[in-house]
Amino acid sequence: MNRLNLILGLILAPSFALQSQANDSVREAIEKAIPYVQRQGAWWIDEKACVSCHRVGQMLWSLNTARSKGLTVSSRLDEWTSWAIDKSLSKHDDGQLHGERNKDGLAQLLLARNRTIDKYDAQHEQFAKLIATGQEEDGTWKPGGQLPGQKRDKLETTNVGTAWIAVALFDYRESADVKASFNRAIKHLNSVNSAKSAEWFVARLLLAVKQKDATQIEAMTNRLMATQNDDGGWGWILNQESDALATGMVLYALNQSGVNPKQERISKAVEFLTSSQNDNGSWDVKGTKNATKDQVEETSTYWGTTWAVIALLEFV
After folding, report:
1. Is this prediction's pTM over 0.90?
2. 293 burial type by CB count under 10 A (0-12 exposed, 13-18 middle, 19+ buried)
3. Which end of the chain has fewer CB atoms surrounding its CB within 10 Å, N or C?
4. Quick check: helix, strand or coil at residue 237?
């Protein structure tokens, strides 16, 4: 028996060593990224005072998840969370709440919430109801901020935003208004037949996971698997150059769907992220807008970095 154990140990030792090295590289990448996420996120809050859909939600989601996994994050995280919630429920000069003009941002804050505490449950329920009041007759929500100018047609951006909002509203359907809004969104989303961005398939997959829709899970998973690039990553527009924004999103969604995390495709995606990080902790991402699609852009880089962190944290 001792000899058999020795033989098995010699056979398995290399694989254990490789797995340990992979785990170490994942953790190192996350720890390297957290200061960047905090620094650039705090700069946005302190200088811009804007709780927009393209910064704060992603910041809080990545940092709350990191803290829940035992990683060290800034002591200001609770302050930033409180600020985002209070700002969303504060009023413009005309009396309208900031959150009423920022449905995408409210949805992101719902997705970013710290599920280990219930301190903000009442505010989160208010967010869900505010989102429901802003829905279009066709079941969609108009994309806000810079989103309509992205390098995909506006209809797809609208559909993607609607899918993300539906994912966020899923847990708040005890309210009759929210449930009715969610159902209208689903009716519209079920009519969508084509898309070219990875983000659509990611949001649709996460929604299918929420609904436990095995058919849709399989379809979205197969589509994403089939469009993985040779370097292990995905492009924000499918089959284009890989970037951390798309790869982080896809990797997170595949993990949520139950794909075996040890299979080769997943390992290649993790390796793409851990090997392409900048010295300052960020990942370069070209702009998602038509005007910046050919150059590395700060906002897209921030999005990509937070998504890379969110995805890699699934492997810690």
Report:
1. yes
2. middle
3. N
4. strand
